[in-house]
Amino acid sequence: MEQIMGVINLGNEKDLLEDLTKHRCQASVPFGGRYRLVDFILSNFVKSGVHNVGVFARKKYRALLDHLGSGKEWDLDRQKDGLFILPPHDSTESYKGDIQHFYEHLPYFERSKEEYILVTQGSIVWNINFRHVLEEHKNQGADITLIYKDYSQEEKAVYHTLDVDDNERVQAVHLEKTINQGDNVFLNTYLMKKSLFIDLMKETYEQGKYDFVTDVIRANLNRYHVQGFHFKGYMPFIHSIESFYNHSMNLLDPNVLQQLFYDHGFIYTKVKHGPPAKYLQGSHVVNSLIANGCTIEGKVENSILFRGVKVHKGAVIRNSIIMQKGEIGEEAFLENVILDKDVKVSKDRILKGEEIPTVFAKSSHL
Amino acid sequence: MFKKETIAMLLAGGQGTRLKGLTKKLAKPAVPFGGKYRIIDFTLSNCSNSGIDTVGVLTQYQPHILNSYIGIGSAWDLDRKYRGISVLPPYQGQKGGEWYKGTANAIYQNAYYINQYDPEYVLVISGDHIYKMDYSKMIDHHKEKGADATIAVLEVPWEEASRFGLMNTNDTNKIVNFEEKPTNPKSNLASMGVYIFNWKVLNQFLLEDEQNKLSSNDFGKDIIPAMLKKDKELYAYEFQGYWKDVGTVKSLWEAHMDLLSDDPELDINDPTWKIYSVNPNQPPQYIASKASIKRSLVNEGCLVYGNVENSVLFYGVYVGLGSTIKESIIMPDVKIGANVTIKKAIIASGTVIKDGAVIGDDSGEITLIVEDLGIAPDSNINKQLT
Fold first, then answer.
1. Which residues pair with A52 in a beta bridge?
2. Which pLDDT band holds residue B385 (cuts at 50, 70, 90)?
3. What is this structure's pTM?
4. What is the dihedral angle through the alpha carbons of A215, A220, A221, A227, rounded to the nearest 10 degrees?
């Protein structure tokens, strides 16, 4: 029954989250109180029956590998297939493009038994069932299906976009376009027969071209039936600290919470074995997401606390994101800030960000 | 098989009748505890944290939930090559089979399992107690004394002493007498139900005990007294710290309240001694704008719109707007509507409580609402529903 193999292609990820992506790739950025961005795609794969997942990691992947482990948390520690971590053969060589990276691991593709391949990114926050994509791909008689999402945010950003006709057939792929509301953003996610993928990848590599989207998909729009798949579910575009912050705060809307974390089953992540969150006598917590292992004695409003955060007596946290193991000293005051993992804020300290919040780097002592 | 110096045998077959409706469908060790755990997590975590990686779990009463919860022991890092966890229910052999007649008989029937590892010592523990204990220190003590058996003990209040197995020791900690649940206690040094035996010695006593048709095949009532009678070297190992038998509705409730103090005696948030459990992987808890939470433990997957005070909320609990929960234990996936009042109650897993219901009162009695029971709107309940 294994029909699709999954590839998480991290080669093209841009690491746009400033301090948060300084020492880690975007796929391993913490999100939503207890997750890393990569948890969404891994959970999507497993819930879609995809049990052969290759992670093409390229750089800054220590945090990612630590998080993935054997793949057990996503049910990917399997006798047959499972999770494969595939970094470039030689990281001192210059990276020419994802095709080179794929080509280096050609035997992985050839040995896999699945008929179809789905290549995607590591940091999209979404719930998608790839079974539906495959069904649509077959119904349309497509050779290649590209998944896209309409852009509805105000902020300017740069993405590949697609033009599709009334039958969702892809007419054009625009590279690195500054986008407007209503544009169809290509999610760098595509499905095709594995045999076609291998043929096109080899052929293009031998021509000395190395970018899959440009040199395979865009270059072959007329040669193959390339179909669009419009993803209509909830999916925030995260491409800056501002959008990361805004979309994190949107999780405080119970409807968004419901759509993202409950309607499609739970999102799997690495288990930490922290106890339930503990609220002490003086705690005052409203409109917030709190993860396990937190101990709260102060005030928390409109904020997200990741696992193992300590908020001491008299401390105030407002409109902020505090990542794992943060510790906020007595009477400290935090507003509009993002504290990366392991940040300690001393007693009485005041940290205030602007509308676009200030990020404090991992393990800082303030 | 590989030789292991020490293996653990965990008694998990108890029915726990004094927990009433809470153990209708599950064994006592599987009863939810502490907002995210089951009682057995504490002993399994103790094994894991003490470096004991071979654990036989003896099950008998209502084992299904317990068995699937234990799985292959991954949660406690007990999914190990050639070692790890084995669930051991009663079985049939060529000459038939029988239920475990008592704690000692359960071990007797599994001598074959134990012999596979050719151990020097067998640690016998029970899945009914809440405590954190480094068994490796007790094993060291056992070796130092050159004991045949060591019993972990703690001092209990005199007025409660008659509920326990009690012993007197001399100044070298050697046990001079032992009485199981005496009416007039002569000591307040109580057995915690944690024993280390030299396997060769224990095996001999189990064989003899099995021949005795009058025996109740119980460690406290039969094996320990028999060993003392034959002048075996029995020592007490004094345990300092929190230990609680959560065998009654009242003690289960008390143990939860104990966790809520600012600095509880039992620290479940100790990174050097984690309490492992099977994780339901739910989203972080959401605390709404009009909610208020004080002195409580709240687990993942909870959505809280109301007021929670001095209470423990397990995963997946919903608390509606205007509801107030005080001094209560709300087990997994309980849905509480709007304007509900709950005081000093234990609400078992999956219960749905409709708007306006009032549960519990100021009488001081604990109200217990059991599994799968729907509570109608505006109902008023202040007695145990079992």
1. A82
2. low
3. 0.92
4. -90
Of B34, B286, B294, the CB nearest to A254: B286
Q: Which residue of B lies nearest to A251 if distances are taken between CA atoms?
A: B286
Which residues face A174 on adjacent strands? A161
**The token pair that represents B52 in the structure block:** 């004991």
Answer yes or no: do B303 and A254 touch at CB < 8 A.
yes
User: Given an 8 Å threshold on Cβ–Cβ distance, is A293 in contact with B269?
Assistant: yes
- Closest by CA to B150, choosing from B136, B131, B164, is B136
Please say whether the beta carbons of A283 and B293 come within 8 A.
yes
Instruction: Say how far apart CA A6 and CA A16 lie, in whole Å.
Output: 24
Interfacial residues of A (vs B; Cβ cutoff 8 Å)? 32-34, 72-73, 252, 254, 257, 261-262, 266-269, 271, 273-281, 283-293, 295, 304-305
Interchain proximity A279–B74, CB inside 8 Å: no
CA distances from residue B309 to A70, B234, B322, B379, B384 in whole angstroms, order as listed: 40, 46, 13, 22, 22
CA dist A328 and A365 (Å) reads: 10
Which one of B284, B290, B295 has the shortest CB-CB distance to A289?
B284
Ordered by where they begin, the domains of chain A are 4-261 (3.90.550.10), 278-360 (2.160.10.10)
Query: CA nearest B204: which of B108, B101, B115?
Result: B108
How buried is A199 (Cβ within 10 angstroms: 0-12 exposed, 13-18 middle, 19+ buried)? Answer: exposed
Q: Which B residues 67-96 touch A at CB under 8 Å? A: 74
Mean residue pLDDT of chain B comes to: 92
Binned at pLDDT 50, 70 and 90, residue B372 comes out as: low
Low-confidence ranges of chain A (pLDDT < 50): 1
Mean pLDDT over B300-307 rounds to: 97
Q: Which residue of A has its CA nearest to B36?
A: A276
Closest CA of chain B from A126, distance in Å: 15
The number of C-alpha atoms within 13 Å of A139 and in the hemisphere containing its C-beta is 11
* CA–CA separation, B296 and B307 (whole Å): 11
Are the Cβ atoms of B300 and A274 closer than 8 angstroms? no
Cβ within 8 Å, pair A262-B36: no
- Check residues A22 and B373 and name the one with the higher pLDDT: A22
Q: Model ipTM?
A: 0.91
- What are the contacts of A102-105 at 24+ separation with CB within 8 A? A102/A56, A102/A201, A102/A212, A103/A201, A103/A202, A103/A205, A105/A54, A105/A56
Instruction: Provide the chain B residues 101-140 that lie in CB contact (below 8 A) with chain A.
Output: none
The pLDDT tens digits for B71-82 are 999 999 999 888
| Contact call for residues B368 and B349 (beta carbons, < 8 A) | no
| CB of B331 closer than 8 Å to CB of B5 | no
